[in-house]
């Protein structure tokens, strides 16, 4: 995925910021344990820049972990939602390709579900510029656990309907794709977790994904109506167990 070819998808979230904030999954404590382990330093007390912060799902968790965190977000709608939800956390406008941050000013640069919207050949040097010596760049993505049968079947239905390869995100999350220049030595880890949510929350979460947002509302609604029928056959009590693999990449500076 390239940032330029997917610009409409990258900007599509702004109109759905409130729905995004209300329904997207968060991240488990074990993820932040893994970030600290791979970085070799704690988040508590660290200066963290969370880039592509969106509505602040990851930013708020970093803040709760004890980090001194600043958010960077390019989108109008997402930034406005962030400010409403997290008035105590600073946010500045910008993106990873040209960070609005001082050189050697942070201990961590984090990207939650956002690195794929950057140009890595620009975003890597920018991350290295703003990181202090011994700092860490941490990238992570919540990805569907496709070895769970109902999730694989749902992904197949989505792929057929929209003509996309839903499973590509897992294949594309790797160190080479993250840094095509090869200047960073990423270590990876996968953290599995799950959440149980009402079917309406699950469907609303699906509706915030860019593949839905760039299609007309009628098309998306038609798919989600059919998907509800499939889900209720699998989960007749109306509670869906979403299972995720968080794919984490961490690289430290010298």
Q: What does the model show?
A:
The chain is of the alpha/beta class. It has a domain at 7-144 and 167-195 and 243-252: Vaccinia Virus protein VP39 (Rossmann fold, 3-Layer(aba) Sandwich), CATH 3.40.50.150. 41% of the residues lie in helices and 24% in strands. The protein is built from 12 helices and 7 strands. It has a 7-stranded mixed β-sheet. Helix 6 links the parallel strand 4 (106-112) and strand 5 (131-144). The protein is globular, with a radius of gyration of 18 Å. The two termini are 29 Å apart. The model is unreliable at 1-5 (pLDDT under 50).
CATH domain class of the domain at 7-144 and 167-195 and 243-252: Alpha Beta
Name the CATH architecture of the domain at 7-144 and 167-195 and 243-252: 3-Layer(aba) Sandwich
**The CATH topology of the domain at 7-144 and 167-195 and 243-252 is what?**
Rossmann fold
CATH superfamily of the domain at 7-144 and 167-195 and 243-252: Vaccinia Virus protein VP39
Number of helices: 12
Low-confidence regions: 1-5
Distance between the termini: 29 Å
Order of neighbouring strands in the sheet with most strands: 3-2-1-4-5-7-6
- State the shape: globular
Q: What is the percent of helical residues? A: 40-55%
Order of secondary-structure elements = HHHEHEHEEHEHHHEHHHE
Arithmetic mean of pLDDT: 90
Structural class: alpha/beta
C-alpha-based Rg, rounded? 18 Å
Biggest sheet: strands, sense, closure?
A: 7 strands, mixed
- The amount of beta strand, in percent, is 15-25%
Number of strands: 7
